[in-house]
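Sequence of Calreticulin (Hirondellea gigas).
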Amino acid sequence: MKGALLVVCLLAVSLAHAKVLFQERFTDGDSWESRWVQSEHSGKEFGKFVLTAGKFYGDAEDSKGLQTPQDARFYGLSTKFEPFSNEDKPLVIQFSVKHEQNIDCGGGYLKVFDCSLDQKDMHGDSPYLIMFGPDICGPGTKRVHVIFSYKGQNHLIKKEIRCKDDVYSHLYTLIVNPDNTYEVKIDNEKVESGSLEDDWDFLPTKEIKDPEASKPEDWDDRATIPDPDDAKPEDWEQPEHIADPDATKPEDWDDEMDGEWEPPMIDNPEYKGEWKPKQIDNTDYKGAWIHPMVANPEYAADDALYLRTEVCTVGLDLWQVKSGTIFDNFLITDDIEEAKKVGDETWGAIKDGEKKMKDGQDEEERKKAEEEAKAADDDEDKDDLDDNEDDDDDLDLDMNDLDESEPDHDEL
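Predicted 3D structure, token representation.
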């Protein structure tokens, strides 16, 4: 009984410490402009985000987010919040992305910074802590970026995580655990997970090839060898091509004009190719030599790969060729279950309505296209009918002319 009570108390303490560290749903109209700062970094032509639910949505208000409205533009926008550390706690980063323009090339990711970021000068080389989210460019790049900064270097995940590439809203979630594990979710479903040490190259390898070891000179790693007793047959050597024996000199061939006639060449049916002795088992074969491994003296374990001591800013720093992406439902928390709940309450609440509205629009466009095609066919049929009537009129005129040209019987 006391044990059960202790578990309940510990759970209550854990829940009490669970915290939403940053959240942005853009539900208060244009007030977002007072919280987010536009980059003014020199040398780049920045597009200006607008607040909109887009062309189709699940809820006219709840679906509103920041949209990229101009093609072929850089976008740079960020917001700061109370700094925190994820020491001994999960770090959950979550947001939704909607590529309603059917994006062909552009970023859909966010960046997390510490407090040192100069927001008005944010650009592609500004140091960040984490970069996370979808990136699409042509058919070859459709991936979820998960990049961590570690000791001043950016490290991309070694696994390929495919992102969603349709026109609907999708929820992206990154979970970084204090045991140096991680999980990536799309639409509240796990798509990848593993170890930070295994799936990034933060650290040198644990083992290296023994620099003192080398393959012995007498090590024979040939499984088979040419048979020393095998000899090439005497009739083996034959030309690959021969003159066509059935060819004859054309009758109109002029040696003085055309040169000396030579029959065309054909494949020689007797040609056997390059001769090689047959292979036999190598009695001295010792197997493939494997270089022995030793501990890497440069390797040092790091139990704090997950740790970000000062998280302070979220930014959208990206380039888009074809604009129209909408970002919404930003959340940073240390509570994994809370993130799932918020995802269901935001993205989950509008996704079906969004698809229903898009399907309705597509059906209307289909009907309109059919009506326009029918109208075009009717116009073409009418034009053909008018042309036929004009031809009949011309025929009547010709007949009248003929009648007028005939002599009167009385005159005859």
